[in-house]
Amino acid sequence: MNRPRHAGLRWHMRRSLFLAPTALFLAGCSAPPAQQSTTTATYFDSSSRDDILSGGVKMIPVETPRRTFHVWTKRVGNNPKIKVLLLHGGPGATHEYFEAFDSYFPKVGIEYYYYDQLGSAYSDQPDAPELWDLPRFVEEVEQVRKALQLDQSNFYLLGQSWGGI
Q1: What's the rounded Cα separation, in Å, for the pair 92 and 87?
Q2: Which end of the chain has fewer CB atoms at under 10 Å, N or C?
Q3: Residue 42, domain member (yes or no)
Q4: Hey, which residues does 2 pair with through a beta bridge?
């Protein structure tokens, strides 16, 4: 098979475009242990959370011009000061490639949320092309942010590809 020489370079560039911003984000979020306010025991304690019986999963209602749909989210950990909402690519991709953060975020006490946007994976799958609109997706993220009680004092947004727009 004859593959153009630059095909491998394109793959490495795309990979770097994802990994470089992610590394910068992680470097900015990790604080020295003295500044981290969570311990392993409190980080994994969900006893006071309303999502304890679902393992951190919540279906969030999202109002659209068509009707109300539901999107899937999953919380991992507890940290009142550092919470990250992960926005996947697509549209139509899933949260699954963000599961790599399971090997980093818990170690540094970052609370984070997986989220499948409308039309993706565990979220509702409407057959409504008019909903595939950038302002509507932005409004969806805002509704999810509010439902998860994420605010300017504790909230970071990490988007990749479509989720970064």
Answers
A1: 11
A2: N
A3: no
A4: none
Strand order in 111-116's β-sheet? 57-63, 68-76, 111-116, 83-87, 155-159
Nearest to 115 by CA among 151, 90, 79: 90
* DSSP 8-state class, residue 46: -
- Tell me whether residue 160 is in a domain: yes
Q: Looking at the 3D structure of the chain, how many domains does it have? A: 1
Q: For the chain, list residues with pLDDT below 70.
A: 1-38
The CATH number for 143's domain is 3.40.50.1820
Q: Is residue 3 part of a domain?
A: no
Using only the alpha carbons of the chain, give its radius of gyration.
17
CB 61 within 8 A of CB 70: yes
Amino acid at 137: F
Task: Judge whether 68 and 128 are in contact, CB under 8 Å.
Answer: no
Count of beta carbons in the 10 Å neighbourhood of residue 63: 11
- Integer CA distances (angstroms), 115 to 17, 49, 57, 98, 103, in order: 21, 18, 10, 10, 18
| Cα(120)–Cα(140) distance, integer angstroms | 13
Residue 113 domain-assigned (yes or no)? yes
**For residue 129, is the peptide bond before it cis, meaning its omega torsion is within 30 degrees of 0?**
no
